[in-house]
Design brief:
two-stranded antiparallel ribbon
Length: 93
């Protein structure tokens, strides 16, 4: 048996494609801005610390962490069977 303790948080997964689209848009915009500055080979010599691989890796790690966080706050619950439990006792105030 599988269920979520707080399934209302699963709606946050709707935001994830929007974040992906925003990242793609900003990445394209950044490339165009860099191309306006000059020739790409010259710019690579001027900015050797600029690494697209690290930028992509950083985004995908943050994206994956957000997906995992959304999944975890929705409290997935696993079990083999559903059992109804009745509590008995005295409530102390």
């Amino acid at each position: 048996m599988f269920r979520f303790g707080n399934p209302e948080y699963l709606w946050l997964f709707v935001v994830m494609p929007l974040l992906l689209a925003l990242y793609i848009y900003l990445n394209i915009k950044k490339r165009k801005d860099v191309q306006k500055m000059g020739v790409l080979s010259t710019l690579k010599k001027m900015m050797p610390e600029l690494s697209l691989k690290r930028s992509y890796l950083k985004f995908w790690l943050i994206f994956a962490a957000l997906c995992i966080a959304i999944f975890m706050i929705s409290r997935p619950q696993f079990g083999t069977k559903v059992q109804t439990v009745e509590k008995e006792g005295i409530e102390l105030v």
